[in-house]
Amino acid sequence: MAEFSYKSPVVLKSRTRKKSAHIYSNLGSISFSKLLILVFLILLCKTQDGFVKVEGRNFTLNGERYTYLGANYWAGMNLGAPMNGNYARLTSDLDLLQSNGVRNLRIMGSTQGPDYKPHRITPSLEYECGRYNEDTWEGLDLFLYEMHKRNMKAVIPLNNYWGWSGGFDQVIEWFFGENQNDTEIFYFRDKITKHYDEFIHLIVNRKNTAYLRYEGRTVYYKDDPTIMSWQLANEPRSINCKEWASWISGRSQLLKYLDSNHIVSIGTEGTITTCQKSGNEVPTIDYITVHAWAQNWGWYTPSSREGFEQGVKKVQEYISENIKENLNISKPIVMEEFGLARDGLSFDPKATVNIRDDFYQAVFDEVLKRTQEGIMAGVNFWAFGGKGRPRENGGLMWEPGDDFIGDPPHEPQGWYSVYDTDHSTLELIKQYAQKFEGIQ
């Protein structure tokens, strides 16, 4: 049962009913051919609304199949912040992504404080429980507006299983204190669910200040075609499958009740985690996500070429496993996270990326093939660092004042980032972005 109440239907006043009756009574005077044209124009307007939709295993956009090669670019909200951001860096990064064919970005839509805690994104959006930093909000506004100008689409996770953005553990701490050691609390405590649902209301109904400032028009997030989808969280996990599916159902139903324009996903890593299928089967979840981490999961250590083919094979098998597991669900499948270190496991931005390029190509080829077969729908690499650079050639953890790059604050900086000077990687991305866009 849903955890919210639908409003009762509004009864039209008699004056409205009479007006409607007058309209219908005049339809008889319209010729059949004109009526067909009218119906066609209505359907055409509905089709050309700019929102990504789901039809079976495919995404569609304006009546055509929508497939893509995109990037993870989680720092855009902070870079766009008017007071604490870096607008020049943001626009430069977006221009570079656009010039290389990247039209889809998976970003962050929620970060938690307190900002003095180490190894997390700061300034945060929610700096205290239920209290929000307007500068960071406006950073997200501007980020989405700049994406809109470049005809890009955003996938927006609404929270994070991991602590590098505050995430689940921080919310649990706000309500139940530190050292709970049980992330499952996030799904099964009414206080936390209420807090999460309140944020859904807040972000879906957010009025984008950048559209108002630069174009003089009011655009709510729920009405912005720049947003492709809402994602319940980044890489959520659970071992209580029935209860977890109930939480997913409640949250995704609420999103769809408040926002009929956008599709919804969970944000899970795939079959490597428990319960992922029970979540994917929820009817109000529109598509399935897969993440693959060859080095993190011990499939390949890219210090040399040794073991490279085996690492690629493991990723290919993992993709096949996820396709097989979810094939009867008949929803689009996206490979939305994968990455690899620079050659020699170096964190130096000047280090070569020959092995990584070959790995990217192998993953792109596999997803492209599956997308051409109609089984998958897109891919996002992890992650774009653009003009940002790590401190002292990398390897150190992020600290306030350092550049935001593709690596989250809790990981050695420079591990998986793709920089604006990684020309061979960017050229590869551009080539494959064109191939993905050409799929019908």
UniProtKB/TrEMBL annotation:
InterPro entries attached to this UniProt entry: GH (IPR017853), Glyco_hydro_5 (IPR001547), MAN-like (IPR045053)
All residue ranges annotated as the Glycoside hydrolase family domain in the record: 51-437
SUPFAM superfamilies (UniProt xref): (Trans)glycosidases (SSF51445)
Keywords: Glycosidase, Hydrolase, Membrane, Transmembrane, Transmembrane helix
Enzyme class: hydrolase
Enzyme nomenclature, EC number: 3.2.1.78
Regions crossing the membrane: 21-44
Reactions mediated catalytically: Random hydrolysis of (1->4)-beta-D-mannosidic linkages in mannans, galactomannans and glucomannans
Gene Ontology MF terms: mannan endo-1,4-beta-mannosidase activity
Superkingdom of the source species: Eukaryota
Record flagged with keyword NADP: no
Protein name from the UniProt record: mannan endo-1,4-beta-mannosidase
